[in-house]
Design a protein that fits this description.
single chain; mainly alpha; 2 domains; globular
């Protein structure tokens, strides 16, 4: 979803810059709720105030609920079918590709200086192989980012 949001919000409609969008996604990640809903609320508020945030939030929420209900009804009926199992097996590589696209987008905008690249690699290695608690990774990253911002 992030590349789609970036295209629509930054490139197509120019509601905000790429740097502001990266900040928006970071903020949406740490606030409770789905990233699409949080992003829509933020952009709606920035563009049209409180009413804009309500309309944008409903614009994201209502279609998702309707489509999810329709898909759930269909999947319940077809869950044991062989073609459905094969379809789900084929969807997995697509999901990996979509996640990879989001990683590349953030790498371009967030890793803009050598120190960030090194720090990201260290956190990744510690988190993956040393089983560092992700909460500690986030806390240390936030403190380091704050300290570097003040310099």
């Amino acid at each position: 979803m992030v590349p789609l949001f970036e295209h629509e919000i930054v490139t197509r409609h120019a509601f905000m810059s790429a740097a502001d969008f990266a900040n928006l996604i970071g903020l949406a990640q740490v606030t409770p709720g789905p990233i699409g809903f949080n992003s829509a609320t933020y952009v709606g508020m920035a563009q049209s105030g409180f009413i804009g945030s309500v309309v944008a939030s409903l614009g994201v929420m209502v279609p998702s609920i309707v489509i999810s209900l329709i898909v759930a009804i269909f999947l319940r009926k077809a869950a044991d079918a062989k073609w459905m199992k094969l379809l789900m097996k084929g969807v997995r590589p697509c999901v990996v590709g979509i996640i990879g696209a989001a990683v590349i987008f953030f790498a371009k905008t967030a890793l803009c200086w050598q120190g960030a690249v090194i720090f990201a690699a260290v956190v990744f290695i510690r988190w993956t192989w040393a089983k560092l608690n992700p909460i500690w990774s986030l806390a240390v990253s936030a403190l380091l980012g704050w300290a570097l911002f003040l310099i």
